[in-house]
What we know:
By secondary structure, the protein is an alpha/beta fold. Helices cover about 40% and strands about 25% of the residues. It has one domain. The protein has 15 helices and 20 strands. The longest helix is centred in the middle third of the chain and has 27 residues, at about 150-175. It is globular and about 70 Å long.
Amino acid sequence: MARHAVSPPRTAGQSTLIAALAAILCLLAINSTFSAEKTWKIGVSKVVITPEVPLWMAGYASRTKPAEGKLTELFAKCVLLEDADGRRAALVTLDLVGIDREFAADVCRAIEKQHQLPRAAVMLSTSHTHSGPVATKVLRPMYELVLSEEEQRKVDRYTRSLGEKIVQSVEEAIASLAPGTLLYSEAVATFAVNRRTNVEAEVPRLQASKSIQGPSDHRVPVILARGSDGATRAILLGYACHATTLSGYEWCADYPGFACELLEKEHPGAVALFWAGCGADQNPLPRRTVELARSYGAQLASATSEALAKQQRVIQPQLSASYRTIDLGLTDLPTREMLEAALRGTNKYEQARAKSLLAILERGEPLPSTYPYPVQTWKLGNEVTWVALGGEVVVDYALRIAKEQPEKTLLITGYANDVMAYIPSLRVLKEGGYEGGGAMVYYGLPGRWADDVEEKIIAEVRLQTGAAVAASQ
């Protein structure tokens, strides 16, 4: 007869110990699973910001009346990223010529209050389309003497609504947070032309003979956001070129908007977000027709699709963000007598600037000799370093930063957080011209930038990107 081993009965203490060990093993298994599955959480939103009533359009001083129609909708789009440790950041792209620092500060305070996102974690990026509405106080001297009181009230109402819609876009993106992955790749589009070194009318001939002159940045950096099911949720693409193909009286996001439309049709359910690079001295040339705007949009969309078809680098779910303003010097400040002479003159833009600057002197305050310039940096894993610069930044900055830090994958965004003026390199500053200082009157600043403008910005970029030591060696 076979014998069967019989285990002795367990005591209450032994049962408790075994249960505790089982619980510990279970927790270890769960933690191991979580660590193995560390991932991004991604939220996406898209809110229409097209004016509902006719407003004056931004970007060109030559316009003489409000908008009369619509070619495309204008949008505020948001991608909300949350890394494996719960740190969050929100990119908001806007189909606008720009926003000013007071507006940006108010919006970011509202976002921080409602959603606990610190200032460094919110990047407000404008496409610089010249077929959007006058909004905030950007380029105020360009419109101050042509807008009636009623038209100005419309602009103010639109600006308040715009701020609310930006906060709404962040809220909707947070509500849609879900696990996903981020991937990086890039391609090239060549329609950006340096407008300082190529006469617009001659560009077709120069292109045919491959004789285009001057620096450009033709890269198209692309970040793809995928859901856990592999579906495309968002496509983030950048390009360094003015959105100035069109100059009519119809609302339009210009070539960036047409590119995003094509990409969203190709990827149903996804949102395509465009950010403008350092293209202050770059134009889409030739231009001035809807057909050309659509063509450039198609070229940009094609380059983006080419990037997506390449082998892409996975971006690890780690996020850090920094934001700081630095004082950039202003020089050649006008005297009271010079401002009074400008006020009596015939140039309405100089009159408008003189009026606002004289108001400062009437308050007993000196004219500002510095400007608080914003520099922002996001680090996405060890794979991507994203620098956001304020103002209309010339291409020299992107080329220099990339040259100084060749080991990094760098995204350099202009027109971000505050569009207060053109930002020339020292070379462009010394050459002069519109980007070198002539445009300052339209932005209302009292003088031109000091000669150290480039070095101050580059020094802050080095500091935020962790390249200060390497760059000084």
